[in-house]
Design a protein that fits this description.
The protein is mainly alpha-helical. The protein contains 5 helices and 3 strands, in the order αβαβααβα. A 3-stranded antiparallel β-sheet has the order 2-1-3. The model has no long low-confidence stretch (mean pLDDT 80).
Length: 117
């Protein structure tokens, strides 16, 4: 295992303070996250500050935030739950029209897999 691979395995553990699960179970991939603004960011980790800054521009989904941070979704959910608990962020469910049907979602995944072959 290369040094980079070892660092990639350790970093999420360090970023979450060793926790593997968020304190609240309200996040799915398309949950929208919005910054509440106004609270001081002192004492927040660099990743948490980045999340607050990202969400100041408007609502972002959990998966978008994970992509911006280049972190696994599970790690991102732990960070988000800390920020919601601290009052820095709020969440809301996406509109029903934004949630793809299960069949359509599976078809899009299948099409993507076929295109990559």
């Amino acid at each position: 295992m290369s040094r980079r691979d070892r660092r990639a395995l350790v970093r999420p553990h360090v970023v979450t303070g060793g926790r593997a699960h968020p304190s609240r179970n309200v996040f799915d991939l398309v949950t929208l996250v919005i910054s509440t603004g106004g609270l001081p960011r002192t004492g927040l980790s660099p990743e948490k500050v980045r999340i607050v800054e990202l969400c100041r521009g408007g609502a972002l989904s959990v998966v978008e935030i994970a992509g911006h941070l280049s972190l696994p979704v599970g790690v991102t959910k732990v960070l988000l739950s800390d920020l919601v608990d601290g009052g820095h962020l709020t969440t809301r469910a996406p509109s029903p029209a934004a949630q793809p049907s299960r069949t359509r979602l599976l078809q899009e995944v299948l099409d993507g897999l076929r295109a990559s072959l």
